[in-house]
Amino acid sequence: MTPASTLSEPLDERKFVVALARGLDLLRAFKPGETMLGNRDFVERTGLPKATVNRLAYTLSVLGYLRLDETLGKYALDAGVLSLGFALLSGTDTLELARPHMRNFAREVGAAVSLGCRDGLDMIYLETIRSETALTLGLASGSKLSMLTSSMGRAYLAVQPADVRAALLAELRKAAGKPGAPGAALIAEVEKSIAAFAGEGCCYSFRAWHDDVNAVAVPFREPREGRWLVLSCSGPASSMGEEVFRETVAPRLKALARRLGDTVEAPARTTARHINRPIKPPIKPLGRGNAR
């Protein structure tokens, strides 16, 4: 079952319903691109007993969250999951307000800009808008990236209370592997990025999750709900190097984040009503000749 330290709030065992958590773990077992999973897959991915998996899968299919293919003996996600996702996206005011600014940012910078939030040990993309000329692996809504490899994940970790961040890093270390494994070096890189956030106000990811993708991310707190969201901008490392992200993209992304909510740099001055004001200074396109 999902570790308690990956939850967004401290665990109160008196209120925690284990059966519900186990059912949601079955839904989380699906990975991008997978359409069918069998009971054996659920057992392997959740660690739950086979009998428990059978009962949970049946219940979720009756409720419309899973659909059983009797020929294959496997389950697919059903429309109930989509309705929950749509309710989330349609109920996020910040997303609606951010879209036009994200669209302008992507067009003028010539890259992909995304808005995301935490999902366990990953960051999930609520929206991604790509420039028509962007040659990058922009991820679609619902896609997830590890906190370890994504600039978005590192930025989220950087603004968490010390105890929450420590618990998350402990789980990430466990997931990355034992000391000496490739994951250990990645953890050290993440901790370095978090430490640098205090002076930079953003986090970078240079070729961390893909050999030809560089990215920068800036967190901000929603004025109404108070949760942390993260803006990120990604582009091809071959044409948008570290210098471009540090000197050109990052300052502009921080300016956009300040229009959307409260940032670490200016937590008291920015509110949602400022979002319709143009970003100053105006963003100038990054021509291919400028991207080095």
UniProtKB/TrEMBL annotation:
Keywords: DNA-binding, Transcription, Transcription regulation. One of its GO terms (molecular function) is DNA-binding transcription factor activity. SMART domains: HTH_ICLR. GO terms for biological process: negative regulation of DNA-templated transcription. The keyword DNA-binding applies. Residues 80-266 form the IclR-ED domain. Transmembrane segments: none annotated. Residues 17-79 form the HTH iclR-type domain. Pfam families: HTH_IclR (PF09339), IclR_C (PF01614). Residues 271-292 are annotated as: Disordered. This is Transcriptional regulator, IclR family. The lineage of its organism: Bacteria, Pseudomonadati, Pseudomonadota, Betaproteobacteria, Burkholderiales.
